[in-house]
Amino acid sequence: MTSAKRFDQIQTPVIPVMAKLIAANPGTLSLGQGVAPWAPPAEVIEAIQAALCSDPDLHRYGPVAGDPELRIELQHWLEQQHQIDCSASEILITAGSNMAFQAVVQALCDPGDEVILPIPYYFNHEMAVRIAGGIPKAIEAGVIPDPDQLEQAITERTRAIVTVSPNNPSGAIFPRPVLEAINQLCARRGLIHISDEAYGLFHYGGERPWSPGAASGSGSHTISLGSLSKSHGMAGYRIGWAVVPPGLMSALTKVQDTSLIGPPKLNQWAARAALGAGAQWCKEQIGGLAERREQVLQAFNGQQPGRLLCPPEGAFYALVQVQCALSTDQLMERLIREHQVALASGSSFGLKGACLRLSYGTLSGEDLAEALQRLQRGLLALT
User: Fold this and answer.
1) What is the DSSP-derived secondary structure letter of residue 305?
2) Which of 54, 119, 302, 305 has its CA 20 to 30 A from that of 378?
3) What element of type H or E holds 126?
4) pLDDT in tens, 345-362
5) pTM, two decimal places
6) Is residue 130 over pLDDT 80?
7) What are phi and psi of 221, to 5 degrees?
């Protein structure tokens, strides 16, 4: 028995491939998977314990779009922390923002419809578009995408343009004028602007993240995606959301009812408690990453065999580019096997040449320093 033919065109996700290589090479230090290093606020555990004792309906199905209490609290959070105007939009609670994106492209795309993904893109976005029967149109428009180049890629089959800021995999924060121009382009051409903001609170001075959903009148053509996985250390709880134009809600609830029925009720209790802990809690955790980021910047200060593709101003990623005869997949594998340090292959993000994604969220202090030293030795040997 074989799978549907369209899955032959879908890339194998890089994180499980990398994890298998790491498992086969004990002692490997990972700069690969993007995981926040902190646990959720203490209020989350307290809320779960209280829910188990006090909610008699916890074991029953909940509303397809999510519990009303969580949707209300999330609206307040989005308005206060990201200035998103939710008054002309609906909120869908999903099992993480990956599921939110997949639901959105299923609701938007008929077979053969196009979704523009500026390179570097997030690999799960490219995969989700293909699974939905759409065509991911990967465009080299710069690490900070040029709106004019994106407009040139629009055809009669284009349905949406996707931006990820702060960016996974580059760590770049897209300037507000760039995002405004892309958002206005979508409004002018009748497209949806899908703005992935999973790292919306992650910045280290300088440019601050800006949400296109904060633009006046953007609710009719803008979808804002978010998650508690990174900011609140809740990757395993699988709570994300999509802020969407009301006209898409009917299709989205069909997708959600078919795949999830409704978000897990216990996890929504946890989400409400996480939001209640306040943004300052998140900012304190994120602030602790600044020292790690500085270690990465110092490791690539111009004297080494690699360079950072752009200054990583947000999230907890950086792209390392090297001159190398190996393919980026071969480089990833040999760094793990021969030098016991893991980074994600840049090919998964649509990048050409030898380019690797470095995550500084997983290691700290001496472990991070050792991983960076192994990386430099490995790059010197392999390039």
Assistant:
1) S
2) 119
3) helix 123-131
4) 999 999 998 999 999 998
5) 0.96
6) yes
7) -140, 15
